[in-house]
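Appendix B. One record, verbatim.
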Amino acid sequence: MTWPTHALLGINSLWLLTPLPPELLGYDLGTLAACAVLGALLPDLDASESKIKHLKIPGTQFKPFLLPAQVVHRTNQHRGLLHSLWGLGMVTIITAPFVFWTGWAPVAALLLGYASHLLGDAATKSGIRLLYPSKTRFHLLPPRGRFTTGSFAENAVVPLLAMSVVLLLLTHLPWS
């Protein structure tokens, strides 16, 4: 999947948090959406070129993910470790201490975004190695339902994902 599709899937994963009362979340939906998008882009640190590799801190030229992306790409193939339950587990362990600083909701949003990336790539023809280092590929869909990254089929889903994000925002953003 391409990064815009992953970003939209990440935001859509926040639907899982909507049954919770806003005061329990403790964060606005915009902040949680940003965390979900970050999580949805993280697995592609292992790609030779990825959106997350080139993200800059606003107002600077600093790319905080450039060095980690280069290291991970050199030591791992795309859709390897970071596209597995091991990758999700590592990110969970790394981000768990942030709960004490930020609260649980941003970390949960980031992890939901990460999981949405894995599910999205599992819907492609390539699938993912969910139980890395096993070479077995996991596919979410039957063979005829799988799509190629960047294909017409993927692009046809993007407007539906975007409409779902708009609906999420319209129904869950506070209006003053």
